[in-house]
Amino acid sequence: MAKNADAKRMKILEAAKRRFAHFGLAKTTMAEIAQDLSFSKALLYYYFPDKNRLYASVFEMAVDEIITETTAKIEDANGVCQAMDAFLSTRLQIIKDNYSIFEYAYSLRSELPPDVEEVLPKLFEKEIQQVSTILRKGIKHDGLVVDDVEVTAKILLISLLGMRLGILQEVKSLFLPPSKEEFDYILGLQQKLAKIFLNGLKS
Amino acid sequence: MAKNADAKRMKILEAAKRRFAHFGLAKTTMAEIAQDLSFSKALLYYYFPDKNRLYASVFEMAVDEIITETTAKIEDANGVCQAMDAFLSTRLQIIKDNYSIFEYAYSLRSELPPDVEEVLPKLFEKEIQQVSTILRKGIKHDGLVVDDVEVTAKILLISLLGMRLGILQEVKSLFLPPSKEEFDYILGLQQKLAKIFLNGLKS
Question: CB-side exposure of B63: number of CA atoms within 13 Å?
Fold first, then answer.
C-alpha cells in the first residue's frame, strides 16, 4: 500500500516537473497536472496540499539531481582543477536544463514561496561540503595549503554564487533571472575566479 | 543667483541626509525636511520634484563620499594588500555610518526607487576602476601577474560584493539588509577572500 502511494507521488512529481519546466510556476495549474495523469484533482491535493508545495518538491528533486551528479563528477576527477571545473559546469548545466524550475530561486524575487526558500539553505550546506571535498583533494594531491577547509570552502562558494550578482548589476535588472546565454558568461567568470583562488592557496 | 540656488539645494540635501540617516526613506516626509530648514514645502518641491528624487540625490552624495575617501586611501597605501584592506574597510565603514541611507540599496528589495537604481551602476563602474588601480599597484610593486586588469578587477569586485549574498543565504532573509554586526562579519570574509585572490595572482 505504501509502495503504491509512493509510486503515485512520484508520478505526480514527474508530470509536474514536465509542466513546470515548460511553463514555469505561474502558468501551470493543478488541474492541468491532474489531467496529464488522468488523476482527479482531489487525488493530487491529497499528496500535495497546494501548488507551491508541489513546486517545492519538484524543486527539491532538481536540487537532489545537482547534488548527486556533481558529487559523482567530483569523485571521478583527477586533481583539484578538474574537480572544480566539473562541479561548476555540471551544476550550471542542470540549472540551464531545468531553467523554468530554477528561475524562481535564481531571480531573487521577493515572492519566493516559503516552501522553496526552505530548500535553498539545504543546497547551500551541501555545496559547502562539496567544495570542501574539492579542497581536500587539492591538499592531498596538488599541494594546496588551507587553514580552515570549511571556512575557505564557504568563501569560495559564496564568491562563485556572487558572480550572478555581477550579471544582475550589469544588466540592471535585479529581479529577472539570467538568460540562458548569460549562464555561459557566468560560468566563464566562475572558472576564472576558481583558478585564481585555487592558485592563491598554493604556498 | 545660481550660487544662492546651489546653496539652498545643498542645505536641503544636508537636512534630508540627517532625516534619512536617522529614520530611513519610509519614515521621513518632505514636510519634516522643509520644517527642519524653515523652508516652505513648495520651495522643497521646486528643487526636488518628489521624495524619491531627493532620496536618490542624498544616496548619490553618500556614494560620492565612498568614492572620494576610498580613492584617497588607495593612493596613500603602501603595496597591494594595504590598499585592498583600506578600500574594503573604508567602504564598509561609510556604509555602516550611513546605514539607513544604504539600507535600500543593500536589501535587494524589489521596490528600489528607479532613481536610486540608476546610481548603483555608476558606483559599480567606479569601484571596478578602483580595484583596477589596486591591481596595477600590485603589478608594479608586489610582483602580481595579471592578464587583463579590468576583467580581473571585475571578478574580484563581484566576488567581494557577493559576500553579502552569503550572509543572506545563512540568515535566510533575502530581503532584509545586514545588521551592523553582520557588516563586520562580511568585512572579515572579504579580507580573507582578497588575500587568497591576490596571492593567486602571484606567479
Answer: 22
Total domain count for chain A?
Answer: 2
Question: What is the residue range of A170's domain?
Answer: 55-200
CA distance B2 to A90: 61
What is d(CA A131, CA B18) in angstroms, rounded to the nearest whole number? 45
How many CA within 13 A on the CB side of residue A201?
27
* Interface contact B192-A166, CB threshold 8 A: no
Q: What is the pLDDT of residues A96-127, one digit of tens each?
A: 888 778 776 655 555 567 787 778 778 888 99
Q: Do A170 and B110 touch (CB under 8 A)?
A: no
CB nearest A161 (choices: B165, B174, B189): B165
In a mutagenesis test of the B interface, which of A116, A159, A182, A195 is the best target, namely the one with the most B β-carbons within 10 Å? A159
Tell which of B49, B68, B86 closes a domain. Answer: B49
Cβ distance B124 to A199 less than 8 Å, yes or no, reads no
- Please tell me the distance from the alpha carbon of residue B6 to that of residue B129, in angstroms, as a whole number: 30
Distance of CA A135 to the CA centre of its chain: 20
Interface predicted TM-score (ipTM): 0.81
List of residues 6+ apart from A25 with CB closer than 8 A:
A51, A55, A100, A104, A113
